Amino acid sequence: MLGLTLDPRSDESIVDQLTGALRDRIRERQLVAGERLPSSRALAAALGVHRNTVTTVYRCLVDEGWLESQVGRGTFVGEDLPEGEGAVESRFASGTSFDWSPWRTGHGPTPGDEMAEAYGTPQLADTISFAGGVPDPDLYPADEVRRLGRELLRGDDTLLFRYGPAAGYEPLRELLAAEAVRDGVVSGEHEVLITNGSSQGLDLFLRFATEPGRIGVATVPCYPGALHLFEVHGVRCRSVPIESNGLDLGQLEQALAGERPRFLHLIPRFQNPTGLTLSTLERQRVLALAARYRVPIFEDDYGPGLRFEGSEPPTLLALASSGGVIQSGTLSKIAFPGFRIGWLFVPRAIFGDLHEIKRCSDLGGSLFPQMVVYEFWRRGGLARHVKKVRREYGRRRDALLEALDREMPDEVRWSEPQGGLVLWLSLPEGLDSLELLPTAARAGVTYAPGAFFYPGGAGPAGLRMSFGGVPAERIAEGVRRLSVVLREASRTAGRRKARRSASDSSLAV
Amino acid sequence: MLGLTLDPRSDESIVDQLTGALRDRIRERQLVAGERLPSSRALAAALGVHRNTVTTVYRCLVDEGWLESQVGRGTFVGEDLPEGEGAVESRFASGTSFDWSPWRTGHGPTPGDEMAEAYGTPQLADTISFAGGVPDPDLYPADEVRRLGRELLRGDDTLLFRYGPAAGYEPLRELLAAEAVRDGVVSGEHEVLITNGSSQGLDLFLRFATEPGRIGVATVPCYPGALHLFEVHGVRCRSVPIESNGLDLGQLEQALAGERPRFLHLIPRFQNPTGLTLSTLERQRVLALAARYRVPIFEDDYGPGLRFEGSEPPTLLALASSGGVIQSGTLSKIAFPGFRIGWLFVPRAIFGDLHEIKRCSDLGGSLFPQMVVYEFWRRGGLARHVKKVRREYGRRRDALLEALDREMPDEVRWSEPQGGLVLWLSLPEGLDSLELLPTAARAGVTYAPGAFFYPGGAGPAGLRMSFGGVPAERIAEGVRRLSVVLREASRTAGRRKARRSASDSSLAV
User: Fold this and answer.
1) CB contact under 8 A, A340 and B362
2) How distant, in Å, are the alpha carbons of A19, B9, B349 from that of A73?
3) What is the model's pLDDT at position B88?
4) Could you tell me which CATH class the domain A128-139+385-508 is placed in?
5) Residues of A in Cβ contact (< 8 Å) with B331
6) pLDDT at position A91 over 50
7) What does DSSP assign to residue B419?
8) How far is it, in rounded angstroms, from Cα B271 to Cα B255?
9) Which of B28, B138, B356 to mutate to test the interface with A (most CBs of A within 10 A)?
10) What is the DSSP string of A58-126?
11) Residue A219 has pLDDT above 90, yes or no
12) How would you classify the pairing of strands A215-220 and A263-266?
């Protein structure tokens, strides 16, 4: 991050090293006036240092006049250098005087770099990462897809070079529609829109359905990609807890009542990050509430085919009779996320609106990946692959549950997902999974800290473990490492608490 | 459009055929309650009928209760069917009761289908199309790119399957940066963002810089992709004329003064649709005005390498010393638009903001096309290809200017672009190029009607001719066909005018 590296063996303290490095970046105009710095949390996670270290450095640079701190917005490079500090001259020295700060609208983007960078935490060579919620690249059907791609490129179809339809490659839309029509969820390909991954699906819907300051309803914890998009769109989020006993329907009703929300965002199947699945009954209740308060539902359905056991409840879209459900899908949790193939099932009444936003914003995605995926799907490769990864991820889930059962301290709890790629670990009070991340990384294990899944980063202790990316035989070792970190942290927290209550009682005397 | 076809040889009139077909679509719920219909202009252009035919049909269906007309918003399918008209039952019959109309926010998308559909006007087999402003697919370096693609797929790089960096494929960013650093316009790849075509570049900037109701400044005529995006973003557009004698700097100053605009959008090189290029002096004046009123400039630079003659003025980004210019680029006017490769050169101060919006909205584009383009570029294929198409498009421009000179009536005027793919034809008063399009299509020639290039479709008579897509030996015949249409239309307009002035004088008596 920012190209910074620290040397723990240096004579200079970490604080001094970091302060000096940031001063240099500003002098050399690698950081320029008005530029936003990473949050202290993100930079700390990226550098593997404690967050207090970074806040100390930032405070010191603010005092010296290098940085400016704006409450609630972050830390920025100052407009003027401290007196006596000449900038290193470059041909761009004069290229930075335009003041962009009034251009940052109130509902502007928030730095999602906390997330991105935590995954980039410097890691030991043999780190076991439960962090990313992505499928294992080693399982990709690479040979078959490469072969299909070469076949396509040997042909003479110039379609792959031309502007394609904004709604996506027609045969792929038809294939998706054919399956969905069988499931009774769409009436034909005129309700299918291919998107650049499922992120773009949610983004298009939010562009259609919301305006800055409007209200949306989502679960906590929630998929961070959705939380970040809510922020980009300036949506004020009402949160409904999802826990081991399901979605809190009382709180859901409260959230839907009052000023009418623009949408309810849900991941009913293998919810990310908890791994929980809503039962058919829960789904029916959710639909009834949404219908009563006339709020449309955005159903993120990333996990079809990834169920290891039990029966599959119908999707909200299949259960709904109101036309008020829009559903996103993706291949990125099954294989090759780099192809960026997602889709929306869009009620006919608003298909034209979403299609138009898609058309205006990027004129449609690249055709080649859509054509390759189409062939892979049509020839049965996708079905074979889904079967293979379901078996493998099921094995990994089993290995993870078994290891957690064996290794974890009593106060730690976890969800038991019936499919997907992730589960949720609840930590005892006093443990902060974000603060513990650098320690865990040093111990050779990483995860996604709970804070990433709560609006504003404020949530109860917890963390997400993805079993998708770790081979079954490495899982037990990863859990062992994590349990050591958690036990040690529990002891420290216990001692701290004991000291605090001791000092409380001395005060009380 | 809507899957409608009309049979001119039928006993039934065109109005009756169209009215019946739309009733059927609504009965069968292929068109559902609340759905927006194409504008009468767009549907007329798509079906090759006169616009009045469509307005008659719409009015009739509104009277019967099938459709609802909402002033300024368009024509929609009615919430209820006319009495006595039972819908054809389908499993989706009950799936359309959710009322989406309150979800259409005021600044929602406008149907860009006028544009898309006019290009889909039913055409004779030997139609000569000057309509699309895209490069000629027959010139694509298909063999070389197919070979490079196959080479990549034979390798074992799994990068193409994985989530890539949201900012784009690193080596491609570096390559772009290396060229741009040489030209003195960026300081390194940390100012380069790969986008899904240049449309997404403008979209990202607008998402950063504007809010609904804010003001932007752009030229008239203007690239329709930009106009549509301004509408999607709810930007109120102040227009500055660009004509054969250049940009109207007096009007530009007026547009920049007053309530501060959020941006000035310009295509200084081979402007689309006029083909005009701003001189260095004009560029300096524009920059001075933008700096005085502290308005950032979005420079759409689609045409580097496409100059046939004369010297290349520096880009606004190269001339600017204020850091207030952001520039978009694309390969889509050189080759393979279907690969969707565009980029932004972003001032360092706001790079993080735009990068974050890009990351949230689609997690980055597909890597494979970026990797292929990188190899093509790095190995010199792109430079060779640019040389080839420049020569060829230059030949086509020459053929077009020559044919226009020979064939066109005296009252028709045109621009003489020094490069690019398009030129602008000014028509005498009384001719409407949009209304003439079906006639022209029947005569075997098409073009882009002037209305597409003006906000709200209201502009002086004129049309855009793209010479990029027509082989040189077909150009003279295309111009001959167009000139016949224009001469005939002039005569009709002349007679109409004569009749009108005759009736005026009879009234005056």
Assistant:
1) yes
2) 21, 67, 15
3) 45
4) alpha beta
5) none
6) no
7) B
8) 19
9) B356
10) HHHHHHHTSEEEETTTEEEE-SSPPTT-PPPP-TTGGGG-S--GGGS-TT----THHHHHHTT----TT
11) yes
12) parallel
- Omega prior to B455 cis, within 30 of 0: no
pLDDT of residue B79: 78
Please name the member of B34, B190, B200 whose beta carbon is closest to the beta carbon of A349. B34
What is the mean pLDDT of the segment spanning B418-440?
A: 92
Min mean pLDDT across A245-254, A479-488, B177-186 is at: B177-186
Predicted ipTM beyond 0.90: no
Q: What is the pLDDT of residue A88?
A: 45
Query: Residue A448: what residue type?
Result: A
Instruction: Specify the range with the lowest mean pLDDT, choosing from A8-17, A414-423, B336-345.
Output: A8-17
| Phi, psi of B164, deg, nearest 5 | -95, 175
Mutation for testing the A interface, residue in B31, B79, B100, B421 having most A CBs under 10 Å: B100
Interval A154-180 mean pLDDT:
90
**End-to-end CA, chain B:** 50
Measured between beta carbons, the chain A residues lying within 8 angstroms of B203 are 360-362
Q: How far apart are CA A306 and CA A308, in angstroms?
A: 6
CATH number of B14-97+111-118, picked from 2.40.50.140, 1.20.120.1730, 1.10.10.10, 1.10.150.20: 1.10.10.10
What are the structural domain ranges in chain B? Answer: 14-97+111-118, 128-139+396-508, 142-382
Size of interface A-B (CB pairs under 8 A): 313
Q: With 70 as the cut, is the pLDDT of residue B259 above it?
A: yes
Nearest to A109 among B103, B356, B366 (CB): B356
The model carries a pTM of 0.83
With an 8 Å Cβ cutoff, are B348 and A296 in contact?
A: no
CATH number of A14-104: 1.10.10.10
| A contacts of B108 (beta carbons < 8 Å) | 208, 353
Contact B270, B390 (CB under 8 A): no
| Closest in B109, B140, B340 to A353, CB measured | B109
CA A186 to chain centre: 28
Distance set, CA B202 to CA A362, B199, B207, B342, B345 (Å)? 9, 5, 9, 10, 11
The helix/strand/coil state of A390 is helix
State mean pLDDT over B249-258. 95
The CATH class of B142-382 is alpha beta
Q: What angle do CA A386, A387, A389 make, to 5 degrees?
A: 65
Write down the pLDDT at residue B507.
46
Q: Which residue has the tokens 């111009």?
A: B479
CATH superfamily of B128-139+396-508: Aspartate Aminotransferase, domain 1 (3.90.1150.10)
- A120 CB neighbours in chain B (<8 A) are none
- Residue with tokens 């099938």, as numbered in its chain: B66
pLDDT in tens, B141-171: 999 999 999 999 998 888 888 888 999 999 9
pLDDT category, B24, cuts 50, 70, 90?
confident
Instruction: Give A229's contacts in chain B (Cβ within 8 Å).
Output: 360-361
pLDDT score recorded for residue A321: 78
- Single out the residue of B92, B79, B109 nearest to residue A325, CA to CA: B92
Beta strand spans in B346-504 (E)? 413-414, 422-426, 445-446, 448-449, 463-466
With tokens 């100390």, the residue in question is A56
Task: Return the half-sphere exposure (C-beta side, CA atoms, 13 A cut-off) of residue B356.
Answer: 27
Q: Position of tokens 């294989």? A: A335
Task: Round to whole Å and give the CA distance between B503 and A467.
Answer: 84
pLDDT band of B104, cuts 50, 70, 90:
low
Which of the residues B25, B103, B204, B372 would you substitute to probe the A interface, choosing the one with the greatest number of A C-beta atoms within 10 Å? B103
